What we know:
It is built from three helices and ten strands; from the N terminus they run H-E-E-H-E-E-E-E-E-H-E-E-E. By secondary structure, the chain is an alpha+beta fold. The strands form three sheets. The protein has a five-stranded antiparallel β-sheet. The longest helix has 12 residues.
Amino acid sequence: MATLLTPRSRRTSETTGASAGSSTGSPLGTAASTRLVVPQEFRTTLGCDAVGVPARYGFRILSRLPAKGCVYADTDWWWWLVPTGSDLDVSWPLPSCYAPGAEVPDRRPRLIHHPDGTSPYTPPIPLYLLTCQLTGIAPSWTALHTAGDGVVSGHVHPSGPDRP
């Protein structure tokens, strides 16, 4: 399983369809997608994306996060609401799935955790690090380093920047 959802950059009219309930092109064969609904009392000024993990990781992640936003679940997947762009410069480890726009397969996900505070978001960095830990994948991300008069992009790993 490469991803749960077809990346938006690869979506075409054939995979997204023209009407509600159309195919997402998911390799799991999900017939339709839905957007997670944020409770009205929360503002989503940072936009909304979602990070999903198979249900077998759900309780472990929920119990270990220091701060929790809206969490949704269906029988197979748990979804955490994160600010838009929480996938920039990081690769969420498989089997997790990043869902831009909080558009997830329509398996009737429901809100199972209401945030304690005023934000609907789960902080993405602790969620990313915990997801990496539970899946056995070392966290890595791209960072910008200044070198001389220009900016050079470099890959960062927990043990330090990669050096040629």
